[in-house]
Design a protein that fits this description.
By secondary structure, the protein is α/β, with parallel strands linked by helices. The protein is built from nine helices and 13 strands. The longest helix has 14 residues.
Length: 352
């Protein structure tokens, strides 16, 4: 065994640490070292997401968004690697680079997400705190419910209302199949709310009133499977050709026909295309979890009870066993009728 010579001062084998003996590790890929600096993408254009399908995003480039091609067009995009953990949903405004011509086979890239104005969320159930983003930048929620077949569910509509108020969007109600049952007993549960209501039956859709409410706004349609949501959208947007289903006569449940969300232009007669509204169709659901929603958001969904809730003692849980709860006092002295008592019951179930 041979030994390296020692340094006279510290008796350290100087050859072991000599600068000329240090071997620099070559870059195995033969390219430049990686850097955290990213291109600024000054040429990125903004588009609206109108469809999502297995990692591919359909986006609409607005007229004038790209000076080189001012015509409104649809493009297909994939998200950049740095956005792989960022949920991108219908209604999002995104920044695009690459081939945004919209030609067949062209694919551009999503490199950024614009700030969202509103965000509609849901969870799998009330015990699940993980929120699932449904739609962004919506202005309104149209709750479609049938008067019968399937039977209307008051508490499901309450959940929709809470989700709408939590998202900061305006709720609307459209009740269908009014030829099968009188919708007024059901609608009485929401009479105290300032929520516009549209009544319809096959062949008697109030299309003019609904189109007026949709004009210039982005409206997300929600509802139980089988209530006629897709049928209504086909009336408003004939070229949509959304699949429609039927209600099982044994179970009374509707069959899922819309498997994914999509944004459609809701043209209004006499309104320029750029000023027309957007309709967002969502898959029919039989439950709507609110595990991510706070108690304050739930209370905001019951505007008809707000004045009574303000009179409750500080720290009141508003449950049936809460001492001196003003809701119980209002039921006992007749300030709340039978419909109001049912609203209190809905509120307590959601809070619980």
């Amino acid at each position: 065994m041979s030994w390296l010579p020692l340094d006279d001062e510290d008796e350290t084998p100087y050859g072991e640490y000599a600068d000329h003996r240090v071997r620099e590790r070559p870059n195995p890929k033969g390219n430049r070292p990686r850097t955290k600096r990213r291109p600024e993408h000054a040429d990125a254009i903004v588009a609206m997401i109108t469809g999502v399908d297995r990692g591919r995003y359909t986006a609409l480039v607005a007229e004038g968004a790209d000076p080189a091609s001012p015509v409104e067009r649809t493009v297909v995009a994939a998200r950049a690697r740095e956005l792989r953990r960022t949920p991108i949903v219908i209604g999002d405004r995104v920044q695009l680079v690459g081939d945004t011509s919209g030609a067949e086979g062209a694919l551009c890239r999503i490199i950024g997400l614009e700030e969202r104005r509103t965000l509609l969320r849901r969870s799998a159930d009330d015990s699940d705190r993980f929120e699932r983003v449904m739609v962004s930048n919506a202005d309104q929620m149209l709750i479609v419910v049938a008067a019968a077949n399937p039977e209307p569910r008051v508490r499901l509509v309450d959940r929709y209302l809470v989700a709408a108020y939590d998202a900061g969007i305006r709720p609307l109600i459209c009740i269908t199949k009014t030829d099968l049952a009188d919708p007024e007993p059901f609608l009485a549960h929401f009479a105290a709310l300032e929520v516009p209501i549209f009544r319809s039956a096959p062949g008697t859709w109030p299309l003019a009133e609904i189109r007026e409410a949709l004009a210039g706004r982005t409206t997300v349609f929600v509802g139980h499977s089988g209530v006629g949501k897709s049928t209504l959208i086909n009336e408003l947007v004939p070229e949509a050709e959304r699949a429609t289903g039927h209600v099982n006569e044994v179970t009374g449940r509707g069959r899922h026909t819309s498997s994914s969300s999509v944004a459609l232009r809701a043209a209004t007669p006499g309104v320029p295309a750029g000023d027309s509204g957007w309709v967002i169709d969502t898959p029919g659901v039989r439950s709507f979890g609110l595990g991510h929603v706070t108690s304050d958001s739930i209370l905001r969904g019951f505007t008809d009870l707000a004045a009574l809730i303000e009179e409750c003692p500080r720290g009141c849980t508003h449950q049936a066993d809460a001492p001196d709860c003003e809701l119980d006092a209002a039921i006992a002295d007749g300030r709340l009728d039978a419909a109001g008592a049912l609203r209190v019951d809905s509120l307590r179930r959601l809070l619980k």
